Amino acid sequence: MPKKLTDSKWFYVAVSLLLAFILWVYVGKEANPITTDKINDIPVEFSGLEKLEERGLMLSDGSEQSVSFFVRARRDVISNLLQGESSITVDVSNITEAGEYSLSVMGQKINFPRSVSSDSLELLYTTPERIEFTVSRWVQKEIEVQAEFTGSVVDGYQVGDFSLAPQTVTISGPEELVNQVDYARVTVSQTDLSETYSKDTPYTLVGFNGEVIAAEGIETDPETVLVTLPVVKLKEVPLTVELVPGGGVTDIDTQVDVTIEPETITVSGSEEDLEGLKEVKLGSIELYKIFGTDTFQKTIQLSPELTNVSGITEATVTVTIKDLAVRTLEVSDIDLINVPDGYTADTVTKTLSVQIRGTEEAVDSVIPSQLRIVADLSDVTMATGNQTVPVKVYLDGSSEVGVVGDYKIVVSISR
């Protein structure tokens, strides 16, 4: 009589294996169920940036952003997603124009961790749903560097003019940002300066409206400027003029009055250069040329290492001769000397009125014969006919009286 199937031990082995498999499947599903979860901070990466650069374009906004995924998958897949590194790649190599772009996240390349297959999950939706970014034209331009001083100096000192190296800097970046920049500004704010300031200094970018522009997104070259601000000492210095005796003036202190307007100027320079500066000379004035009171305009000149802080370039000098008598004499003693070879010269002027000056007693004692007139023709251009030539008047026999003024006569020259 054949055995029943249930009497076979292999039957029970097969049943046991089947039950074990069913139990394994059941337990596996219960322990690793399908679930929905959110994966945060998935970074967005851009490829093809070198192509943008070749076209003079750049990614100016939106380069740093992230996306959150809402996925449906088994728990172990979710766990791998949370522990791994995912990313989104946006290819911008085909963009040829500047502008604002908005692309669907779902249409981009999504990179999951190696331990996760894209088939093992369902991507439900993302937040945000689109990736937005801006492509701008890349430009560069040179801008001027300007400097300002907001600090202070020690009493008796003054700042000079800024020296900047370089005087211009190059900025580059998105066209819409670069075009807002007017100039670069460096600021020196040190207080109580008593010596020249020199330092490599960063600068800020200033727009056409005068407001500071954030440098984020703009490249600068160089990043600092060598700023030199001279600090010099100030000194008030009197103006003087040299009076050359003559024309009967024998005692300048008592016989001459001099006024100079302004009396002083303020000069700046190094302490060493100012230490020996006692006065600023305006030149000389020959007293024999002055009749009573004369006024002169004198240029104020300084050595190159000094600066006229007052800004006054001319001084008015008034000279008055006082307490001296003036007398006019007719002089006929006229001599011509150094007549060139081959020429003859005769005086057309036979008598010349000459003024003399001195004390009243000394002037009254002079007689015309003490005066003689000499015309030196060595420097006269030889041309036939009458010419007016300068002469020198000599007064012999008196040291207290002098001739006043310049004189000329007419001579006739022939061959």
From TrEMBL:
It comes from the Bacteria. The chain crosses the membrane at residues 10-27. PANTHER family: CDAA REGULATORY PROTEIN CDAR (PTHR37804:SF1). The keyword Zinc does not apply. Keywords: Membrane, Transmembrane, Transmembrane helix. It comes from Flavonifractor hominis. InterPro entries: c-di-AMP_regulator, YbbR. This is CdaR family protein.
